[in-house]
Design goal:
18 helices, globular, Rossmann fold, alpha/beta, nine-stranded mixed beta sheet, 404 residues
């Protein structure tokens, strides 16, 4: 069942592969009816002893979310809201790339390419569009306006599934550079978190020419930028600040307590994909496990931090596009590691690190030309665009103010 396209296959086949086509979400009602039937027939696992978060998403919480999903959540309202933003698709390197593309009404707006991560989607960045494209309406100045481009990563949502291998950061970055060229932009900024924080600097690298010029004027990142996974000796550890030492300790806890999802997605994405493709509750729970671990404060339930509708809409993007397997494959199962060390560029780079994240500047400087580093240790989590959109927007505005 095709749940993603709004144009006939016959018409699409007549369009040159470099064409940029308007796109609207128009999910067939049959797909929504099928989802409702599956949710109504959910077979929940018996609760494990204690039914607590230490063994995964509690069954009681699963039931709470599924009840809301069945009885209160309105996909059509969410679909209509998403469709208020202009969207496009275009074929790049054999892949249909989906993107939100919103041009600012303000003269002199700087194009800005934003890239999401896993288990997110383009949905996690929607709250940034208004403040970035129309700063005057959100307490800012017209001089801070951006044209916004938000593509869905290869294999994610409506840029998926993928049909060939090799979609690492370099290939994705090259696709993003081509996307921006097709949209008419040859000078722009990039921003990203999680996987997006790996792809965004790579866009600057792939567009750099031998004479030192390039399309990207600046790179803005949030998330775990500059994370040491090597063993620190006593002298190195002693040189850390208290904040840095805390972040190193949390990296250690992540490796011992949370690394399982990476092991599974990087080695058996197809096996995992069978469960995610057949069970909407399985897909939701796989995502929610990380939403709880990576939002701030950790003790809060993820829907309390992100909003239940936004949480479910993000999961719906994975379910309706059937990209649980391909997002795992592209994000974690590639032969070329996403975390592979990169050569630094001279492109100005800013990093904002919120309370949950573990970026450390001294380690980030090995790969990036850091000109701005902002630590916000008291609030915010890994999903900055959803958790702290105002702080993230302000930092983006301030960084690019001198690069326009």
């Amino acid at each position: 069942m095709d749940t993603t396209t709004s144009a006939s296959a016959a018409a699409a086949s007549l369009v040159p592969t470099t064409a940029v086509r308007p796109f609207r979400l128009e999910i067939p009602q049959a797909a929504l009816d099928d989802l409702h039937d599956r949710l109504a027939r959910t077979r929940f696992a018996p609760p494990l002893p204690g039914d607590g978060w230490e063994t995964g998403v509690p069954v009681a919480y699963q039931r709470e979310l599924v009840t809301y999903w069945l009885e209160e959540y309105d996909w059509r309202a969410q679909e209509a809201a998403i469709n208020t933003y202009p969207q496009i698709t275009t074929e790049i390197d054999g892949l249909q790339v989906h993107a939100v593309h919103v041009r600012s009404r303000h003269a002199g707006a700087l194009p800005l390419l934003l890239t999401h991560g896993w288990p997110g989607s383009f949905v996690e960045l929607l709250d940034l569009i208004g403040p970035l494209t129309d700063p005057v309406a959100h307490g800012g100045d017209a001089a801070d306006a951006f044209h916004v481009v938000i593509p869905s990563l290869p294999g994610f949502g409506f840029s998926g599934p993928v049909h060939n291998a090799g979609w690492d950061t370099t290939r994705t970055a090259a696709a993003w550079a081509e996307l921006m060229r097709r949209l008419g932009y040859d000078r722009y900024g990039v921003q990203g978190g999680d996987i997006g924080a790996a792809v965004s600097p790579e866009v600057a690298r792939v567009t750099r020419t031998d004479d030192g010029t390039g399309d990207v004027v600046g790179v803005h990142l949030n998330g775990n930028v500059g994370t040491p996974f090597h063993e620190l000796d006593d002298d190195e550890r002693a040189s850390l600040t208290d904040l840095e030492r805390d972040r190193v300790d949390r990296i250690g806890r992540f490796v011992t307590e949370e690394f399982g999802y990476i092991s599974i997605q990087s080695t058996r994405p197809g096996t995992l994909g069978a469960a995610l493709a057949d069970s909407p509750v399985g897909q939701l729970t796989w995502i929610v496990d990380k939403l709880r671990e990576w939002t701030h404060p950790r003790e809060a339930l993820p829907h309390e931090v992100l909003g239940t509708d936004r949480l479910l809409t993000n999961a719906m993007v994975y379910w309706l596009s059937n990209t649980g397997a391909s997002s795992a494959y592209v994000g974690y199962a590639q032969e070329s590691a996403w975390g592979e060390e990169k050569t630094p560029t001279d492109v100005p780079t800013a990093v904002i690190t919120f309370a949950h994240d573990v970026g450390i500047r001294r380690y980030a400087e090995g790969e990036h030309h850091i000109t701005r580093w902002t630590d916000i240790p008291e609030r915010g989590g890994h999903f900055a665009a959803m958790e702290e959109p105002e702080a993230l927007t302000a930092d983006v505005r301030e960084f690019f103010a001198d690069l326009r």
